[in-house]
Design a protein that fits this description.
This protein has about 290 residues and is an alpha/beta fold. Helix content is about 20%, strand content about 25%. The protein has a seven-stranded mixed sheet. A seven-stranded mixed sheet has the order 7-8-9-10-11-12-13. The chain is globular, with a radius of gyration of 18 Å. The structure holds zinc ion.
């Protein structure tokens, strides 16, 4: 199982020169199964670039399939979906999983994003590829050889937030975003879900000593404590704050790696970076000290 980050930024894209090394697109991560499975975690603006790359293969001939796991419908997790040519080519088939809102199903909510108020597409009925919205539950399901598990972590009515776990053999990736650990039950639920994962991808735009209203995220320290408690092998922080420059991310990573080293923790810490293709298991054979900050 391999993985590539196409969007690591939270809230809004950050195209400035000071964000180039880690990347400035909003949330989108792609998992590649060894059997050719493609699973997309969230479709922020990073999805535009992934979708364009797909045009070189069967998706460019209108003969492609794609599974999307949407955590919630805030713009930074959804806004890239209507743009790439791959979703406009008849014949392509998108299977979209995600939570429904009290305001309507995921299909209705997304159809609203394509309405003439926001988009020249004029709604789902006028988009080329087939979009199938799949009901989501805590019942595991298969995408080829990948096992997918989903878990509600916030029961907010208008935009509930779910987490995902993707497993293939010994490799497992857990993706948790936009969750603040306001009570012991949410913490325990997340901990159980992330237990023994090869890789935990966790939103962490701010640290505990930054007094910022972040609309519902755990802090860097929360992500680290969760990863340690769940005995995760590697933690990748993402959903970086739009103001966090590359140099500041370098410093943040160095600071928390030093803290982990002082605690003699086995956990490998990284900061999600757009671009490199990562092998989910091979990641762990490289010790933090041997890896260069990109
Ligand atoms: Zn977000």
């Amino acid at each position: 199982m391999k993985l590539r980050f196409y969007g690591v930024r939270g809230y809004v894209p950050t195209p400035g020169a000071q964000y180039l090394r880690y990347g400035g697109n909003t949330c989108c991560t792609v998992i590649y199964g060894t059997g050719g499975e493609l699973v997309v975690l969230d479709s922020g603006t990073g999805f535009c670039f992934f979708g364009d790359e797909l045009l070189a293969g069967p998706h460019g001939r209108g003969d492609g399939e794609l599974v999307l796991l949407i955590t919630h419908t805030y713009w930074d997790h959804l806004l890239g979906l209507p743009f790439p040519g791959v979703v406009h080519l008849p014949g392509n088939r998108l299977h979209i999983y995600g939570p429904d809102s009290a305001r309507g199903s995921l299909e209705i909510v997304y159809d609203g994003l394509l309405s003439p108020v926001y988009s020249p597409v004029y709604g789902l009925a006028h988009i080329g590829a087939t979009h199938t919205f799949q009901p989501i539950s805590t019942e595991p399901f298969q995408v080829g050889g990948l096992t997918i598990r989903a878990l509600p972590l916030s029961r907010r009515l208008n935009s509930p937030i779910w987490a995902y776990r993707v497993e293939e053999g010994a490799a497992s990736v857990v993706y948790i975003t936009d969750v603040r650990y306001t009570d012991a039950q949410i913490w325990q639920t997340a901990l159980t879900f992330a237990r023994d994962a090869s890789l935990l991808i966790h939103s962490a735009p701010y640290t505990r000593d930054e007094a910022v209203e972040d609309y519902g995220h755990g802090r860097v320290e929360d992500a680290i404590e969760l990863a340690l408690s769940a005995q995760v092998r590697q933690l990748s922080l993402f959903h970086h704050a739009p103001t966090r420059t590359d140099d500041e991310l370098d410093a943040l990573l160095a600071h928390y790696r030093a803290e982990l080293a002082a605690r003699k923790a086995e956990l490998m810490l990284d900061v999600a970076t757009e671009g490199p293709l990562l092998d989910v298991l091979d990641l762990h054979r490289v010790r933090p000290a041997e890896r260069e900050i990109p």
